[in-house]
């Protein structure tokens, strides 16, 4: 049985889309700037990040 061409083209397009997304993330530091800021604030400790997240949640609940 011959392999349908549509299937292969779909998988290729998906792959290229993923690659383009990765490239965009590498090129644009905006996406990571906030994440790095949080990391530096908490001195590279995940507990600090968790605390900050909880604070935000508490504010939302209280307000």
TrEMBL record:
<keyword id="KW-0687">Ribonucleoprotein</keyword>
<keyword id="KW-0150">Chloroplast</keyword>
<dbReference type="GO" id="GO:0005840">
    <property type="term" value="C:ribosome"/>
</dbReference>
<keyword id="KW-0689">Ribosomal protein</keyword>
<protein>
    <submittedName>
        <fullName>Ribosomal protein L32</fullName>
    </submittedName>
</protein>
<keyword id="KW-0934">Plastid</keyword>
């Amino acid at each position: 049985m011959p392999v349908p061409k549509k299937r292969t083209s779909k998988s290729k397009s998906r792959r290229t889309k993923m690659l383009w997304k990765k490239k965009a993330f590498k090129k644009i530091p905006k996406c990571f700037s906030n994440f790095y800021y949080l990391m530096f604030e908490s001195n590279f400790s995940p507990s600090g990040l968790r605390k900050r997240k909880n604070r935000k949640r508490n504010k939302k609940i209280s307000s």
